[in-house]
Design a protein that fits this description.
Largest sheet: 8 strands, mixed
CATH class: Alpha Beta
Radius of gyration: 17 Å
Order of helices and strands: EHEHHEEHEEEHEHH
Length: 200
């Protein structure tokens, strides 16, 4: 079987692929996301959220594929967008609180991209965009949520873990559960079956 590599250190994505029964290794891609986002934002017109997510996913996959040309490498990324503004992962719980206050009571979109690279080239990619409707929770509830959730939410672009207590922040979610967590898993599995990486 062809070697499968996840170009990510994301615990969420590793757990997702492991739970799906995939055999793979995980390698940090070493991509400077800040520089890539800066360059994409400097374009005229600036790259949109889906383009940024796709570019990051592809860059991660290609970075590892260049050193492991015989492997099939998975790259993924996610960009949160609210009214055209792109959000990064909060740096601390104070920033997480401020970000959640801005998202409160509004719908936002998670542009979630996945790409496959082989021999240093992108051979497949997919982007999906679920919409999440955050409810108008109180400041008191927000304080309690942050205390309960703790620093683990700083590893998420939205400042929430929807598979945990973060689900209580929402009134409605439109989109695939796996895509919201960080990876369009079903399209990826279909492509891996098509390529003979996993059984049909």
């Amino acid at each position: 079987m062809r070697e499968l590599v996840l170009a990510s250190t994301s615990a969420f994505r590793r757990r997702m692929l492991q739970a799906a029964g995939l055999s793979f290794s995980a390698v940090a891609p070493g991509v400077d996301e800040a520089i890539l986002k800066r360059d994409l934002g400097a374009q005229i017109p600036p790259a949109g959220a889906s383009d940024v997510a796709a570019a990051l996913a592809r860059a991660k996959a290609q970075a590892i594929s260049a050193h492991m040309p015989s492997a099939l490498v998975i790259g993924a990324d996610q960009v949160l967008e609210l009214g055209g503004e792109l959000f990064d992962k909060p740096g601390d719980l104070v920033a997480a609180r401020q970000q959640l206050q801005r998202l409160r009571g509004k719908p936002h979109r998670l542009h979630t991209a996945v790409a496959l690279a082989e021999g240093g080239n992108i051979v497949w990619s997919r982007t999906e965009v679920p919409t999440l409707h955050m409810r108008a929770f109180s400041d008191g509830y927000l304080d309690g949520y942050l205390a309960a959730a703790g620093p683990s939410i700083l590893g998420t672009v939205g400042g929430y873990e929807i598979e945990g207590c973060g689900i209580q922040l929402f009134a409605r979610v439109d989109g695939d559960h796996f895509t919201i967590i960080g990876l369009p898993l079903l399209p990826l599995l279909a492509e891996l079956r098509k390529r003979g990486v996993i059984a049909t």
